[in-house]
Amino acid sequence: ERSDMDSNRLAPDTPAMKLAVATKSNVRFNPGRRAEIKYRDLGVEDATNGRMRAEVMHIASDRPARPTGWHYHTCEMQFLYMLNGWVDLEFGDAGVVRLLAGDSMMIPGGLVHQEIAASEIMELLEVSVPAKLGTVNCDAPANAKRRA
Description:
The protein is mainly β and 148 residues long. The protein has helices spanning 4-7, 44-47, and strands at residues 28-30, 38-41, 53-59, 71-74, 77-84, 86-91, 95-100, 104-108, 113-118, 122-129, 134-137. It is globular.
C-alpha cells in the first residue's frame, strides 16, 4: 500500500528542495525589475533550486508606481495575490482588470499585458514558475481596448 509521502516524491533526477521560512525578523529585499518597488524575497527560489520564485512587492507612498508599458514575461506562469491596496492591469481581450486586497490572478507566460496604475501603498504576492522571469517589451495587442 502506498503512503501519502510516497506520492509526494519527485523523480530521482529532480534536485531536492528544502524548507523555506520567511519571517518578519529576517526580511531580505532583492533588486527587482522596477526601482519604485521593493521586492521582499521569501526564500522560495533558493529552496526550490530555481523551480519557483515567491516575493512580496511593496510600493510606499513616497515612490508611486509608474505604468510599465506593454510587455510579456518569459516564464510558464505568474500568480498574483493582492495583500493590500490595488493594481490595474490591462490585457487585450480582458481590458483593464483591477486587483483588490484578497483578489488573485494567474497570468500565463507570454500573455501581453501592462500595469497602468496602483494605489500609493500596495503589497502584492507574486509567484513565478520558473524562478527566472524575463520581461520583453512589445507593442500593444491588436485587440487592446485602450492604447498606452
